[in-house]
Amino acid sequence: MSRRKGPAAPPSRIAPAILAAAIVVAGFVTLMIRLEITQEGYRLSTLRLQIRDLENRDQQLRLELAELESRPRLRALAPRYGLAPAAPAQVVVMP
Question: What stretches in the chain show pLDDT beneath 70?
Answer without folding.
Answer: 1-4, 6-9
